[in-house]
Amino acid sequence: MVSTRRSLLAGSTSALAALAARGAGATTPGSSPPLPRPIPVAAPGQPGLNARAAGKGLFFGSAVDDLQLQGDPALMARIVADCGMVVGESSFKWEALQPQPGHFNYSRADALMRFAAKNRMRVRGHTLVWHEANPPWLEATLTPQSGEALLTGYIANVCGHFRGKIAHWDVANEVLHPEDKQPLGLRATPWLKALGPRYLDLAFHAAAEADPGALRVLNEFGVDYALPWQEKRRVAMLTLLQTLLMRGVPVQAVGLQAHLNAAETTLDQRGLARFVADIAGMGLKVIVTELDVRDDGLPADIPSRDEAVAEHARAWLDAVLPHPAVLGVLTWGLSDKRSWLNSKFPRPDGLPQRPLPLDAELRPKPLWSTIAGAFDAAQAR
Ligand code: G3I
């Protein structure tokens, strides 16, 4: 097994060297943009996004804000129509599950589990270890002495509670930040400070032990474009994965969050496809975990904004979806009714962003059709 792993990783070493030598990628010379594909128009009664995905051995899903969902039966119905998987936008985070030391509150997460089970949808767990959305008491008590028991005890409790019912766990979220000059390009989080890089080993092993049936995912953003800072993150991601696998850390998949920007002009499809292939070359699966397309850099006009968002997503999906290691796509929300982007990147004109497949009235947009078309065009797994 070790020799197999070494040979697997040897391939990625050369890929790493090539990636590092390539420097800031640019649009590949001579690469002509693919011919525009007729966009299937979403019509009532047409197969939903997950039905189209499942027909090719893929899945489609969305993040859901459980608090928003409770008061919105129409949105609930659309989620059931389009999704085969859901992920709690906030209800599975440490601040929600363990608001006080020693006190677990699974009520919100269990409500989402019941909703998903009733509608025969799978659930992603997001996320076990992160530097955000932690309860205030956690970082106040996290020390090199307490850290291991805190982390592994929490994961054992949470993964044990949901054992056998979670399709994937985002075991670790957004761990990279090369600018922090830490080992392996890791982000200088309280976890790294308290435990060093082995906090990742501890988290993945604890998750594997508590729920071996849940796919264990390392979830990351900012690896999409041929921008220097994102090139560094792609190299860091491949180096980190290689290191973890060499140490026997049971990571099984990478989550590409895919928070895209319709105004970004440096999408290098070949470079992105190679990055996905490099990850897959290590024997790992890939999931598109949080797709949305910010439009704060675009003019206000809605039809052209919607087309630009759809076209941008199509170019990105055309580079990523064809790889057989890619298991499926989730968007970070299904409807423009609510998006984190409006607070994080408010449009200068004050208009709400339109980053998701359905508009605020739950009508399919060109982005819905783009995702549908990507599944329709995908090779069956
Ligand atoms: O539920 C409380 C509410 O009771 C309170 O009145 C309100 C005002 O303080 O806050 C509410 O909690 C907010 C929570 O979202 C639920 O809406 C938190 O303050 C707020 O920080 C939290 O933001 C979420 C953020 O992650 C941090 O957890 C965003 O909705 C969510 O979209 C965002 O999602 C992240 C992924 O987890 C990781 N990838 C990036 C993505 C976008 O940042």
Question: Explain this structure to me?
Answer:
- The chain has helices at residues 2-22, 49-54, 66-70, 73-82, 94-97, 107-118, 136-141, 147-161, 190-195, 198-210, 228-246, 269-280, 302-320, 341-344, 366-377; strands spanning 59-64, 85-88, 122-129, 168-173, 215-220, 253-256, 259-261, 285-294, 326-331.
- It has 381 residues and is of the alpha/beta class.
- It has a single domain (50-377), classed as Alpha-Beta Barrel (TIM Barrel), CATH 3.20.20.80.
- It is globular.
- The relative contact order is 0.15.
- Bound molecules: ligand G3I.
Short descriptors:
TIM Barrel, eight-stranded parallel beta barrel, 15 helices, disordered N terminus, binds ligand G3I
Give a brief description.
This protein is of the alpha/beta class and 381 residues long. It has helices spanning 2-22, 49-54, 66-70, 73-82, 94-97, 107-118, 136-141, 147-161, 190-195, 198-210, 228-246, 269-280, 302-320, 341-344, 366-377; strands at 59-64, 85-88, 122-129, 168-173, 215-220, 253-256, 259-261, 285-294, 326-331.
Q: Predict the CATH topology.
A: TIM Barrel
Unreliable spans? 1-16, 19-31, 34-42
**Helix and strand pattern:** HHEHHEHHEHHEHHEHEEHEHEHH
Summed over residues and divided by their number, the pLDDT gives a mean of 91
Bound molecules: ligand G3I
- Assign the CATH class: Alpha Beta
Helix residue percentage: 40-55%
Mind summarizing the main beta sheet? 8 strands, parallel, barrel
Number of helices: 15
CATH superfamily: Glycosidases
Distance between the termini: 26 Å
* Domain count: 1
